[in-house]
Amino acid sequence: MKGEITRIFKEEIGEDRVFDDEDHRRSYSADESGIAAEYLPDLVIHPQDNDDVARVLSLAEKFRVPVVPRGAGTGVAGGCVPLRGGIVLVFDRMNRILDIDTENLHVRVEPGVITGDLDREVRKAGLFYPPDPASIDSCTIGGNVATNAGGPRALKYGVTKHYTLELQVVLPGGHVVRFGRKTKKWVVGYDLVSAFVGSEGTLGVVTEAVLRLIPDPPEIETLLVAFPDELNASETVTELIRRRYLPRALEFLDRVSVAHIADRLPGGLPGGTQSLLLIEIDGRGDLFDELEEIAGICEKNGALEIYASRDDKDRARLWDARRKVFPSLEEKYERVRSEDIVVPRSYIPEAVRRIRQLASGLGIGVATFGHAGDGNLHVNFLYSGDREDEVLKAVGELYRIALDLEGTISGEHGVGILKRDFIHLEQDPLLIELQKSLKKTFDPLGIMNPGKMFPD
Predict the structure, then answer these.
(1) Could you report the per-residue pLDDT of 25-61, keeping only the tens digit for each?
(2) Contact present, 127 and 94 (Cβ < 8 Å)
(3) What is the number of domains present in the chain?
(4) CB atoms within 10 A of CB 25
(5) What is the domain-level CATH number for residue 232?
(6) Is residue 131 part of a domain?
């Protein structure tokens, strides 16, 4: 970027918000995808309000400068990596919870609000914001909207799109628009809220969101169930759903995942444990009968041990261990490629079996865990850098497993860079072209997060 353009941005936006030093640029050049930090932005801008964002996008269109919106950089698909330089917009200064409406059950927030902070704040009012990505205490609402983030509670409560009522968006050129309404129902025009949720910053920049809340369930019970085999555990998942149980969360961990967090679990694990299920139910009134019935199904399917959390602190320890699986893998292995296929729940055992076969044939470590209750499995390839080509081939095979079982190649991580060259496996060429046309309508110059979602 020419020095004159940089000077104009600093003059128009403010030198305290626009940075072009190498340390700053390098700090905001990567996410958790493992993509080498070789793509540096020319500028990093920390907008303080909607007007700042509008001015940035107006100037960006004028000078044809790429703009990459960034949440907290917790994504694992390369969605916020600035492939073509330009500007990275960082929303750490737009992090306010603007209004909690306890009568109409919604909250208005800026995009830099940390998801976990929002969850804790609305609970003070007896309300609940269900989407809970693994990085809940570091990821942002803006990033969640960009990827349509889910999490363990999606099984019962759904994902980000189910809670997004209204968005304020700045379009290329600096035009500010609002999509959606604060009402439960609205059918006026196309559903552009849904178009933006999951669009990965390729259409415009979300600067405000109105999110639906629900009453906070007063009772929660949690079970940690140890199994001698991954298939026993995965078959239990399908049986619980088939028997019409709908837990708040139903998490699966394979033997590799278990090995990395066993020392974090209260009381240890029985010998021979090869897989775990973390099962959580909630509601009003006594949950004991439902808990007993679920435990009985687990025992029938060969459970070695069933541990019931004693209190909120104990339950938090179980969830902390579950959320530490991926960080533990990152600490131990040189490279971790995290995938997030989804299959219909009845195919979970078959998916687990095929993934195990794939791992065995590769001779590469594979750790599989995830939100099995809604069919979402995080398959993590563990390897050294010299096996990149083999892993890329294995990723293609994994996607074919998901599609062969009537699933999808991504449930919540998004497409970003890592999946864009595989999107043709799932979507018809005409459908891809229609979506490219939609992007061109919103972003005719192609400056919004270029190089993401679709192959060039």
Answers:
(1) 999 999 999 786 679 999 999 999 999 999 999 999 9
(2) no
(3) 4
(4) 19
(5) 3.30.70.2190
(6) yes
